[in-house]
UniProtKB/TrEMBL annotation:
Pfam families: LpxR (PF09982). The lineage of its organism: Bacteria, Pseudomonadati, Pseudomonadota, Alphaproteobacteria, Acetobacterales. Residues 1-27 form the signal peptide. Keywords: Signal. It comes from Rhodovastum atsumiense. This is Lipid A deacylase LpxR family protein.
Amino acid sequence: MTRPTRIAMAAAAAIGVGALTAPPTTAQQPGPDTAAIWTIQGENASITTATLSDRYYTNGLRLGWTSGEGGAPDFLERMGRTLWGDGRMRIGFDISQQIFTAKDNTSGYPPPGDRPFAGVLLGTLSLQHDDGEARSAFAVSAGVVGPSALGEQVQNGWHDLIGQNRVQGWDTQLHDEPVFQILSERTWRLPVTSLGAVDVDALPSLIAGAGTLRVYGQGGVTFRLGQGLDSDYGVSRLRPGLSGSDVFRPTRPLAWYVFLGADGQVVAHDITLNGNLWQDSRSVTLKPLVGEFQVGLAVMVSGVRLTYTQVFQTQEFKHQKGGLHQFGSLALNVRF
């Protein structure tokens, strides 16, 4: 697929992303929640049941802030009500970094067909809406791929700190290039049944993303079992993972749940696989269909939510080795 074709597909997907913004039904909610939420999250491929680590999607870091309800500027409140109808609105901002490496990260020059080395550094501004039965969000991200994303410095700096060998091959990484992405998503919260003192629900989700970073559509569902399920819409992940939200509002002194989820992605473009848009670089042929499975646990107590997710991901590109790619995701959310 040529670069102009990928750009055209990104533009077309950007026009169509609003398809997820039809107003949902409205449910009665408690009073406004004015607490802001801070989030720190890490994902790493060394948290795995496999024998190999530091390959493909290697590491992700994210620091986020979400306002209390009513914290969005008036013009964004009006935009949100136009998109989704009445409900509670918040704004959020986060900074994230993701690191991708080849499977061969010791030779200094991975063979053709191996994943390109790439770092991605993004800032994301989001508008979030909650009507009590569904959560919707619209987000705009901008940043850079390439050496300025500091992937090499973070990865090898950490390896130096813990006494591991440095990863070789960063000299072949993608070149510096600005990237952007817009994203629209909706997650529904559907009660399923009660089993004595615990409840079961389902969180079906639809997501569309478009831009020079990634063009994709995603659908999935998460099933949860626990107490206080109405406290949130599931755990957060770095995109494009099946993510709930950083927002939580405990409805009992101790809320908790275990969960199992799966999603499918239709991918038209991913710069970390297809390579730079505006200059020659290493690249591989992406697979247009990607699946993920995840299991984990969330605990909420005293204004703190701690979540862990184990992810199993199918191959993202042709000639990818090692079967399912695995990584863990740990997030801490604190209300202020």
